[in-house]
Amino acid sequence: MTESKADTAPHRAKELLALDPKQESEFKKKVQEAKKNKPITGGHLAPGVVYVAHLPRGLFEPQLKAYFEQFGKVLRVRLSRSKKTGGSKGYAFVEFDCDEVAKIVAETMNNYLMGERLIKCHIVAPENVHEKLFVGSDSGFKKPSLPAVARYNKIHTEEQVTKMKSKLLKKEAKLRKRLAAHGIDYDFAGFAAQLPKKTKSSDSTDASMCSDDVTPVCTPSVLERRKSTVVDDDVDDEIILRMPSVKNEEHPSSEEEEEEEEEAAAE
After folding, report:
1. Whole-number Å distance between alpha carbons of 190 and 169
2. I need a surface site. Which of 66, 67, 156, 255 has the fewest CB within 10 A?
3. Which is nearest to 94 in space by CA: 103, 84, 85?
4. Angle at 164 (CA atoms; ends 158, 165), nearest 5 degrees
5. More confident call, 45 vs 167
6. What is the pLDDT of residue 6?
7. Spatial separation of the C-alpha atoms in residues 64 and 156, rounded to whole Å
């Protein structure tokens, strides 16, 4: 029983003693300093961030994390994306649990051929790591609700089209003023030439006169035009051919009947 208790009892740490009793105090001080400066195994490690560039297409956050986990534990991954389309910009930041692992990754993956591209990697100094670099990296990526392509190709209303036209014309006018201010004589058609020409007011009145609407426009100008059109119809030089009247032999006129009656009375 005594032997079993002795085996189970925790072993006390042996005290370090100096060989020379005179240097015992100095030796203990050095031991305490060494214990303070000694890295604690299994404690908190300093993380390291690696910048990865020239990424091929098709590599996103899940693929990057799965690939770099072969070197060590990956804490966070931040892939730079376009705010308009959501596509990858070709570079990312990978944070490892240990900075020594991050250095090994940077040395190993630099100039590594992947998908017909040379990967570029280097360590990011801790003082250069922005505090908001990995903000939102834990949440999954959400594609923008209205990307630039869909916004451009969507069906615009008449008000939106007119606003777009006015903006383009204003920009073009400013550009022409800048060129003139610098003394550059450069004439170009621009957006103004692409816009349809405005019809005159006379065309609109003619259209209202000739239209088949149930309720035509009766403005004073329209009435005057109608009067002028009636006068023009009377003045037109038309050639009228009148055929001579043919007398009907079957039915003699009244003059012939009187002559026949006088001849009969004389006989």
Report:
1. 9
2. 255
3. 103
4. 90
5. 167
6. 45
7. 39
